[in-house]
Amino acid sequence: MFLIGYNILKAAGILIISRVVYKFLSLLIDQVFKDRFNLNEHLKVEHRRVETLSKLLKSLLSYIMYFIAVITILDIFDVPVASVLAGAGILGLAVGFGAQNLVKDIITGFFIIFEDLYAVGEYIKIGDKFGMVEEIGLKTTKIRAWTGEVFMIPNGSVDQVTNYNRGSMRSVVEVGIAYEEDIDNAIRVIEKVCGKVADEMQDIIDEKPNVVGVTALADSSVNIRVTGTTKGLNHWALERKLRQRIKEEFDREGVEIPYPRRVVINGGKLDSQDVPSDL
User: Fold this and answer.
1) Are 112 and 52 in contact (CB under 8 A)?
2) In DSSP terms, which residues pair with 195 in a beta bridge?
3) Taking phi first (over 0 means left), then psi (-120 to 50 degrees means alpha), and beta for anything else, what does residue 177 get?
4) Can you name the residues that pair with 177 across neighbouring β-strands?
5) Which of 247, 170, 262, 158 is nearest to 208 (CA)?
């Protein structure tokens, strides 16, 4: 009887010690993630990721501590630990086969968060899915397409990610002019437009748009390329603005942008007609 009571006290002591150790290590985890300098400079993670990683590590720590405590207590009461572990191993193996995709999702989710592959609010491409990241979980990532659809992608299937928010993005605009036009004059007009647009959108522009030169002699046009770089996703806005302003300036300067035409031969007389847009 005395031995049983002594074993119960030992088991209670082990539980108390396990709890104290868990609390101490949890505080240590909080302290490590609390230093914002270390976060920003070394781990490169944000406050939201810090909380996620902290909770994940604490959860893993609690499972480990209580597992060790239970095994130790079973040994105190002379329970055959080896048999218990063998049975648990067989059960774990059976569950593992059924939940391997879940485990893969969780492990991949952990590394997505830890390595900061993408963040909420960033525009990314996963596989053939484009969209804004709305939520990052340990099991799934939710992204919303610009048309409104929400894609829920298992983290285990995230094998290649394209992030459009990290660093500058390049804008590329191809402008076609008619073969009859003066190329130098067209480039001069485009360069003037680039300067005006750069002044209007200087808050989002990293590198001023400029004319690269003639990039193609197409079937019906001479193509001139304009490039520039912007912050984040603003490259599309810059491209739209450049196309609009170049068209307006071409109209004022009389620079022709080619469009489909049809030549009709009528009694030996050539007659040029514009082709309707729906043909």
Assistant:
1) no
2) none
3) beta
4) 222
5) 170
Beta bridge partners of 141: 136, 153
Q: Quick check: pTM over 0.90? A: no
pLDDT by residue (tens digit) across 191-224?
999 999 999 999 999 999 999 999 999 988 999 9
Same domain, 92 and 126: no
180 plus 150 within the same structural domain: no
CA angle 179, 180, 183 (to 5 degrees): 70
User: Do residue 6 and residue 94 come from a single domain?
Assistant: yes
Number of domain units in the chain: 3
Burial class (CB in 10 A: 0-12, 13-18, 19+), 100: exposed
Question: Is pLDDT of 279 > 50?
Answer: no
Q: What percent of the chain has pLDDT over 70?
A: 75
223 in the same domain as 191: yes
Give the structural domain span for 149. 118-163
